[in-house]
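Worked example 3 (structure in, sequence out).
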């Protein structure tokens, strides 16, 4: 299933790398207003913090497209979600890693069926953290995955609560 990533900083890049070998989902388009296509390979293969398998082949197709291991990825460069044409790339699921669209009203401007926010919502959007409450996911179309801090500590706290009632 093709998906899109809005925002290609630390979180967007990490999600992209994790999905490279995924059998179910593949990134068909990213939105990164400041991305210079000529630096994409270096950006993807080098990281000052995370270490991961960099045994993948990046090829620049043109100024708006590149491929990884033969799979084409389009690059949008727009700061406004309403200008992104995800449907052209058969995308109906977007992971928004910008932190700029944190209400249902704002995030719906992506005009896709399913959206995951990578920051805590500023409204009543359901929030799910893997290892803590992910089993209670009810199929909602728009969800928040909380913050990176929450994702780090919550599974540990859930374990401690279950084991020791903290």
């Amino acid at each position: 299933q093709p998906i899109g990533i809005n925002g290609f900083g630390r979180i967007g890049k990490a999600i992209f790398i994790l999905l490279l070998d995924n059998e179910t989902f593949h990134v068909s388009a990213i939105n990164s207003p400041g991305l210079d296509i000529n630096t994409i390979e270096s950006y993807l293969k080098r990281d000052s913090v995370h270490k991961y398998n960099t045994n993948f082949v990046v090829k620049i197709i043109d100024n708006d497209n590149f491929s990884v291991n033969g799979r084409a990825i389009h690059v949008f460069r727009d700061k406004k979600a309403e200008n992104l044409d995800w449907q052209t790339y058969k995308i109906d699921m977007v992971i928004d890693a910008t932190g700029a669209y944190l209400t249902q009203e704002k995030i719906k401007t992506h005009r896709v069926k399913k959206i995951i926010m990578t920051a805590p919502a500023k409204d009543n959007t359901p929030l799910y953290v893997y290892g803590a409450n992910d089993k209670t996911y009810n199929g909602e179309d728009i969800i928040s995955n909380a913050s990176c801090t929450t994702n780090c500590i919550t599974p540990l706290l859930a374990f401690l609560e279950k084991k020791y009632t903290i």
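Notes: The chain has a mean pLDDT of 95. Strands lie at 2-6, 26-31, 58-62, 65-68, 71-76, 93-96, 114-117, 142-144.
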